[in-house]
Structure formats: structure tokens, C-alpha cells
Amino acid sequence: MKTSYSLTGEGHYSVFLNKVLGLSFADMIILYFIASISFRAISRPFERLNISYLKYLSPLIIFMIASGFFYNLVIDFYPKPYLYDLKWVLYLFAGSMLPATLKENSKVMRLGWVMLMLLISDVGDILYVEIFDCCHELPSLLGLPPLFRILSTFILILGSSAFSPFIAWPVISLQLLNMVNTLSLNEIYLSLVAIGIIILTKLKLAKIIPLLFFNFCFLVVPIFLISYGSFLSEFKADGVNTRTVQIENLNMNLSNKGYGLFGMGYGATYREYIATPEFDIFAVGKSIVEDQDSSMSSPVKFIFNTPAAGSIYKYGAIGLIWLFFIILKIQQKYNLTGWRQALLYLLYLAMLFPGFLKLTFVAGYLLALEASKVRERKTAHIS
């Protein structure tokens, strides 16, 4: 509701981001989950903790953490961005491993219950902003108040078959209406991508084809549109200007650091050869140091407002290819289709652009729930 506040730390953005002793409520919840998972592993040393699909992702994650550490040690030392990405990894591990600690048939393992909690939390944030800050900062093309957003509309469309049409399509319709009203170009674009994936899946093509299509739409098309799609400036001129500068900086950084073959890793900053427009201080926030002005004037930046640019910079060509085949492996291993395939794409989205904490936790948790159901079904079949 107040997207810039998540970067500046000012005003009221989310009730879950209020801080006590430097930690937000969300961080405290995640640390509690991590502690519960650790206690389970220690107290039952002979009972193997099911880490699900994390066993495929872990080598890449460890490599990316090490790459980011080396980058900070040798090139530009800025610990705050690195610590943020480490926190993101904790959110991923907490969400992905939490189902292994839950009691069988617990209500928190039911999809309907999880979706209800997401709805309540989103409505709570809307009311929180409206009450304490009087108004939101999002555009209102249709003059409507902000509407809830349970999950990415892209995923709800892709996995709509998991729900009753009487529930799924009213929710999707409301979210589509909210996307248009708030001019959420990323959400609109990804919703169109979801339709393309559905068509490719219906054609019963090899599973690699929809994934390749998603990669092309996520990594190539957005950069092309920002670089050459001048019509976008009619909708969000300031945002397009900032993203254009960032892509130019991406090109210069890559040309000086291996031409994008190797990624810089989690927590790596990039050199700012062309300055971010001064009017768009919210694009930087306090992402480098605790002072907003110092972050803005810093010779390096951390945030790429175009997710594709951030993915290319952090992972590089080798890392992106590695991640692609990991996702393909997970899909084949668990035979993910329908709603489960949608959750896999949600996790893929979170992995491509590390930083969305809530999205990462929810994606990791929901996919782990579904993976455990597949595992139980296979075990029952063998028995």
C-alpha cells in the first residue's frame, strides 16, 4: 500500500514490519520458525528431517551466498545488502522446511486455511495504512479504493483449477480490477504470461517448453520493452526513466565483470556509472546504509527495479541456466501439474529475484506442503 515505505522505513507500510529492538514482527515470526525447525532436528537426531525440494536448490544457494561474500570482500564491501539477502534465504528455508515440523492433518496444512490467513493479513495491512496514514500512495485510475491481493494474480490464474470456479474467478476478477486501477504493469504482464503458459501446457508439449517461455518473458521481454517501448512512459514516466538508467548501469557493470557469464552473488551491489534520477529517491531508499541520503549518494546501488536486471546481475548466465534445470528437475521429480505447477512458478519467480520476503516464504511453504502430499502418495502406493 505504501511501497516506498518498505525501502525508506518511514511511515506505515505493513503491520508486520513494525520493529522492536531492530527486528520487525515478520522477522521475529521467521526466527521463531527457524528455532522450531532447529529444535526438531536436534531433539530427533535419528529422524531425518524432510527438506523436500531444498536438497536441489541448496547447492546453488550456498554458491550464491559464497559468491556474494567474495564480492563484498574483494570488490565493494557493503554489509547491509548482503545481510538482507541472507535474511531472504532464512525466509525461504523457514517456509520450505516448516511443513516437516507440523502435525499431520494440522489446519495450517490446509490450503483454504492458508489462503484465508493471507486474505486477513492483506486486509489488515490495507486498514492499517488507511487508519494511520489516511491514504495510500498507489495510483487510482478508476477511482477505486485499494482492494486485497491474496497471491500474485499470475499464480491464481495458472492454478485456478485447484479452486471452485465460484471462489477462484471472483477473487481473480477483483485482483485484475485492482491491477488495472493501480496500474500494476508487472502484474498485468505476468497475468498475460500465465495465459501463455496455460496454452502451452494444454498443447501437451514437453515440460521444458513452458519453462523456456516463462524465462523468455521474464528475462528478455521486460528489458526490451523498457529499452525500446517508449509507449510505457505514457503510464509511468518516472519509473521507466529510472529503469532505463538501471539497465544502462547493468550493461556497464556486466561489461566490466565478465560480460554476464558469472553472477555477482547474493548481496552484491553494482557500480552506478549513470546516476539514479534524484527525484526517485524511493527507488533506492535505505538499501545501502541506514541513512536515506547517504544511500542515494553512494557510488554503488543494490536494488534493480526491473527484476530481470537483478536476476541477470546476481546469477549470471551460468547461474540462470543452473537454476532453470533445478526447477525443471523439481517439476519432474514431483510431477507437478495444475496448482502445484503454479506454485513451482511462484517459487521460481521468488528465486529469480531474491528480495520479496513474504512472497518467498509463502511460495516455499505452499510448495513444500504440496511436495509432501506427493511424497506421501508415493509412499502409500509403494506400501
Automatic annotation (TrEMBL):
Q: Which UniProt keywords apply?
A: Membrane, Transmembrane, Transmembrane helix
**Can you say what this protein is called?**
O-antigen ligase domain-containing protein
What is the residue range of the signal peptide feature? none
Q: Does the keyword Ribosomal protein apply?
A: no
Give TM segment ranges: 20-42, 54-74, 86-102, 147-168, 188-205, 212-231, 312-330, 342-368
